[in-house]
Amino acid sequence: MLLDMAAMECNLQTMARFFSQGSVGLRPHFKNHKCPTLAFRQLAAGAIGMTCATVAEAECLARHGVQSLLIANEIADPIKIDRFIDLAGQTEVMVCVDNEKIVDAIAAAARKKRIQPGLLVDVDVGLHRCGVQPGEAAVRLAKAVLEKGLQFRGLMGYEGQVLRKPPGPEKVEAASAAMRLLIECRDLIEGAGIPVEIVSAGGTGSYNISGRYPGVTEIQAGSYLVMDTDYRQCCTDFQLALSLLTTVISKTEGERVVVDAGLKTLSAERGMPSVKGIDDVTLKRLNAEHGVIQLENPSVALQVGDKIELWVHYSDATINLHKRIYSIRNGEVEEVLRIEG
């Protein structure tokens, strides 16, 4: 896997510049690249901390010395709860909750270690995945967190149903409606006498809407840094930076070539990757170890042994299949980046 460093650095600065011009913080999502070296680049560019999807990701970043971690997900397994509590005894790490039973379990584990970890109440703002319903349910859960002797740090709401909408008034309204639900929850909780320090939301697809919505304190954008062809359809602010280097292993003259990369190295969950820098060719099919590229123009000069780069379509699910990324500058390998977590 190859990372165009010039494009990545441009993306890094584009996002950093946006947040430097407002009061909202950027807490990038580690689940996208899973690379501590890139996380440190984001922190150096002004990020206030890192977002994680799993306890394992938070443990990875903590080992590397990263401070201020948010697990933007629910945990329910007793082993994972214990791991979270152990981690909370070592560094600042928060986790999201949407169920009082889990608040009880976290509180019981925390009492054994005599610590008070920070929790965010996750609010369903329209994605209909995790999260309590907006309104009084959020207030009750915030009260339960405090009653159990834990720290209530704030709220999280993920407007994932909005992120891939094309830019325009409809998207602005949809993202704003989701943030309105979240801020109304904040107002209700504060009206009950409970301070709300954090209101965490957003992603790459809504950073410039939710990141300017009054009351939101931080945005969890992730994919912007390496930018894939899926997100690029709705986020033209950022440059494509991530590709997979493949080799042509077979050719049927005038019809197709086959490369040595398939579903074991490249995700097609959200659509097919595309060929970088070569016109009149289309990646039509991915099998386990093969990628079949149709020659729309029979005269395309591709031969067995040629190298072809494929633009990554869904970076989260592709990076997860690899152990390293080769950072490229001016056609040369600059650094080998380890994927962890």
Describe this structure in words.
The protein folds into 2 domains: 49-225, TIM Barrel, CATH 3.20.20.10; 242-338, Beta Barrel (Lyase, Ornithine Decarboxylase, Chain A, domain 1). It is built from 10 helices and 17 strands. Strands 1, 10, 11, 12, 13, 14, 15, 16 and 17 form a 9-stranded mixed beta sheet that branches. An 8-stranded parallel beta sheet has the order 2-9-8-7-6-5-4-3. The chain is 31% helix and 23% strand. Helix 3 (55-63) runs parallel beside helix 4 and helix 4 packs across helix 5 (100-113). The chain is α/β, with parallel strands linked by helices and 341 residues long.
Short synopsis of the structure:
31% of the residues lie in helices and 23% in strands. By secondary structure, it is α/β, with parallel strands linked by helices.
